Write the C-alpha cells for this entry.
Amino acid sequence: MSDPNTSDQTGGTAKPKRLFRVLFALSVALNLLVVFAVIGVFTKGPGAHGGPPGLREISAPYVGAFERADKRAMRAQMRERLPGRSAGIAANMADYSAFLAIVRAEEFDAPRAAMIMEGQMARVADLQKLGREMALARIAAMSLPERRAYADRLQDWLDHKAHKRGKPER
C-alpha cells in the first residue's frame, strides 16, 4: 500500500508539506498586503474622505508655533546630530533592494522581510524622538511669557486649521 503523504509519478495528490507551504506563503502575502495598506494610510495621511492623521499633520502645529529663529536653530541642531540625508536615502534604497530580493525569492523569508521594515521604521522613530526631545527642551528653556506666547501661536495654528476644515472643498 502506498503512503498517502507522497505523490505517485502520474501526478497524484500533492504532498501535504508542499500544500502547507503554499498556503503559508499565501497567508504571509495577504498579511503583508494588509500591513502595506496600513502603512500607506499612516504615511500618506487622510484622504479626501478623512482618515487617520499623518505624522506631518500631528507635528506641524508644534513646530509651526516656534519663532522662525527657533525653527532655524532646531533644524541646524538636527543636521548636526543626524547622519546626512544622502546616507538615509542610501540605507532605505539598500533595504528596498533587499526586500525585493526576499519577495522574489523561491522561499519567502517573512522574518527577514519584517526585520528590514522594522529597521526602516526604527530610523524614522529615531528622527521623531530627536525632534520631540529638541522641541521639549526648547520649550522647557523658555520663560513663562515665552511659553505663553508659544501656546498662543499654537492655539492660533490649531484654530486656523479647524477653520479651514470647516470650509467646503471646491
